[in-house]
Amino acid sequence: MSTNQRQALSWEARASRRRRALLGASLLTETGPRRANILNLSTGGALLDAAEPPKVGDPVTLVRGTLEASGRVGWINGHRFGVAFDQAIAETDVAAVTERAPDGLPG
To answer: Between 76 and which of 6, 21, 81, 96 could a Cys-Cys bridge form, CB atoms 3.0 to 4.6 Å apart?
Structure first.
């Protein structure tokens, strides 16, 4: 993945308002499903945490309830990683997923 592609993924993930969350989710990858935690979510992407993060550039699908959002891993830092969605999801979907997130999460 080129520097321009990484910058594009990074920019896209930050182009919309992020909502903090601490919610379990499934992550579908080419090597099989894995558990992940949603740390924040926006219409353009998500910050996730997993014991075994996928690799930068890997295609993934984030699944939480009725939400299924496909995208690519843009960066990894330890167990945390960012996913830029292939297509923006609706703000109502973001709100539906995050409205039950615990209050008082650190920024």
So the answer is: 81
Determine the Cα–Cα distance for residues 100 and 107; give it in Å rounded to an integer. Answer: 17
Domain with 76 in it: what CATH number?
2.40.10.220
* 104 within a domain of the structure (yes/no): no
Q: Residues 17, 41, 88, 45: is their CA dihedral positive or negative?
A: positive
pLDDT digits (tens, 9 = 90+) for 52-85: 999 999 999 999 988 999 999 999 999 999 999 9
pTM of the model: 0.77
Residue 88 to residues 32, 47, 93, 106, Cα–Cα distance (Å):
24, 15, 10, 25
